[in-house]
Amino acid sequence: MALGKAYLSSAEIRDLSQRSDLWGAWLVVHCWGLILGAAAVFAAFPNLLTWLLAVMVIGSRQLGLAILMHEAAHNALFRNRRLNDWAGEWLCGRPIIADLPEYRHYHLTHHRHTQTDRDPDLQLSKPFPTTRASLRRKLIRDITGQTGVKQRAQQVMFAFKMAGETEAVSSQDLAQAFSGPVIGRAILANVVLFALFWAITGAWWGWLALWLAPLLTWFQMVLRIRNIAEHGAVEFSDDPFRNTRTTLANPMERLFLAPYRVNYHLEHHLVMHIPAHNLPRLHRLLVEKGLGPRMTTARGYADVLRQASSLS
C-alpha cells in the first residue's frame, strides 16, 4: 500500500498517477537530444572547454537515463507496459550498463525496507554524516574515474565469474551482479553508440571521449551526490517524512546534478508510482495540507553536502 494514502485521498493519488506515452517519449527524446546535442557542439567547436561542457552535460544525462530507467522500473515511464519495459531496457538501461529487471527487483526491496536493516541501500546512507575530508576524498575518486573503473571492472569480472562477492550499489544505479548475457546486451548497445559518436565527431575516439569518459567521471560523482541527497544524514527510522530527503534544486542543479525531478525523493517514496513530472505537484499539495514542517528538505545540493560532511 502506498505510504501516501495516509495523507492523500484516492482521487488525489489517481490524478497524480496518470501515465502518458507522450510524456514518456518526450523525456527519452529530451535526454538523448541533450546528449547528442552536446556531442555535436564539441564536434563543431573541438576544444578543451566544449569537451568539458560535453562531459558535464552528457554525464548528467547518463544519470538522466538511470532516472528514466527508474521510472520504467515503477511502470511510470510509458502507459503502454511493453513500450515501458523496452524503452527502460534498451534506450535507458543498456547504454549505461544497467539491467532493468535486476534493478527493478533490487529497487522495490529498497522501497519496502527504506532506512531499516533490510534496506539494500543502507550502506550508501549509513556512513553519513562524515567529515569534509572523507567526503572530499570520495568525490575526488569519482571525478578522476577511480570509482567508475573499479565498478566496471567488478561488473565484467562477475559476469565472467572471475570474482566472488562484489560491493552492492544503490537502487537507480548499476547492478554489480550481472550475468554474461546482460553484459553482452550492454556491449551491443554500446557498439551502436560507438558508431553513432564516430559519425557525429568524425573520429574513432568519439565514444571514448564523449560517452565513456563522462560515464567514468561526472556520472559517478553526480550519482554519489544524488545518493547522499536522498538518504544520507537523515533519520534511521520508518517515518517517510524523516528517512528520505527532498532537495529544492535550482535550474543549474537540475541541468548538471538532478535531472527529471529526481530531487523530489521524499514525494516519490510516499507514492512510488507517480510519474516524476508530477512530483512537484505532489510537493505543493503536501505543503498546502500543512505537512511542510514534517518534511526533510534541503535548500540545494550545497546544503546537502554541508549536512553530509558536518562531522568534525
TrEMBL record:
Keywords: Membrane, Transmembrane, Transmembrane helix. GO terms for cellular component: membrane. Residues 50-288 form the Fatty acid desaturase domain. It comes from the Bacteria. One of its GO terms (biological process) is lipid biosynthetic process. The chain crosses the membrane at residues 21-45, 51-73, 182-200. Pfam families: FA_desaturase (PF00487). GO terms for molecular function: oxidoreductase activity, acting on paired donors, with oxidation of a pair of donors resulting in the reduction of molecular oxygen to two molecules of water. This is Fatty acid desaturase family protein. The lineage of its organism: Bacteria, Pseudomonadati, Pseudomonadota, Alphaproteobacteria, Rhodobacterales.
